[in-house]
Amino acid sequence: xxxxxxxxxxxxxxxxxxxxxxxxxxxxxxxxxxxxxxxxxxxxxxxxxxxxxxxxxxxxxxxxxxxxxxxxxxxxxxxxxxxxxxxxxxxxxxxxxxxxxxxxxxxxxxxxxxxxxxxxxxxxxxxxxxxxxxxxxxxxxxxxxxxxxxxxxxxxxxxxxxxxxxxxxxxxxxxxxxxxxxxxxx
Amino acid sequence: xxxxxxxxxxxxxxxxxxxxxxxxxxxxxxxxxxxxxxxxxxxxxxxxxxxxxxxxxxxxxxxxxxxxxxxxxxxxxxxxxxxxxxxxxxxxxxxxxxxxxxxxxxxxxxxxxxxxxxxxxxxxxxxxxxxxxxxxxxxxxxxxxxxxxxxxxxxxxxxxxxxxxxxxxxxxxxxx
Lengths: 186, 176
Known about the structure:
The complex is a heterodimer. Chain A is built from 8 helices and no strands. By secondary structure, chain A is mostly helical. In chain A, helix 4 (50-62) packs across helix 5. By secondary structure, chain B is mostly helical. Chains A and B meet through helix 2, helix 4, helix 5, helix 6 and helix 7 of A and helix 2, helix 3, helix 4, helix 5 and helix 6 of B.
């Protein structure tokens, strides 16, 4: 069977199916949505191949904005154009938004109780470590060259010195791109 | 705390951050911190860190912290307005790219962009972590939790929910 034929054999989800799939992804997606999305779309439903999903996620990560939402839009456009994109992104956000409204109300009502306050401080300290651990892990995995490391550390220092984001991102971008170009040209 | 003025500031602030959020939501936390804590004083440092933690512990994309901030400033309307301001511009851009014909993945310019912008994103993410850690470091135990959680996420493949759970238990036991 040729590749094109294999693609035709696969089921193409409609917008309602896309919405329901992303509703499920949003509500089950603890600790980052992307792993859950891959599992459902590639493994369980078989709507996309591993490679197709990886490429869609890759584009989503390069663009600015939340990766998970960008990726949902990419998946939606692939199967259903603009309405598909709406179905996926609204599906992804509907559940967590509703849940978050409940959480926010509870926080307003009980957030200052000593026990709740203590639990949240503990979770917040752990979440700070999660972010730091993610940063270290990314450096570990990338094994960047010295110029790229310099760009990264400069971004860290500038952000800590409270230099506004536009200056950090736009100011360092030429140096980052140049350093990357040197690596990839070889 | 609400009022048209705060709502406008909220929307304008997140619109300004949206298209610069290379590396996703966490990379722009320092900028959100500036907007929410430093410029407008809508909440203190610990309140900011806790809302981020709530968004991490709940299911869904971690950008939901923007919704929690919006809720705090202007209620339900603030929640939707802040999310739309943060995600609207980038979503339109993502739609534009997704609609382009042809394969983007693997193109040289895209690989250069990815390689070149990732270090900036990582630097910003590290700054976010340090900022959040400083906001929660009210007791030695809180610092210890942060360090242990950093090591766990870095060195193991375990779900991050374990460290959030452990943080909750340790906080309940010792941080009162």
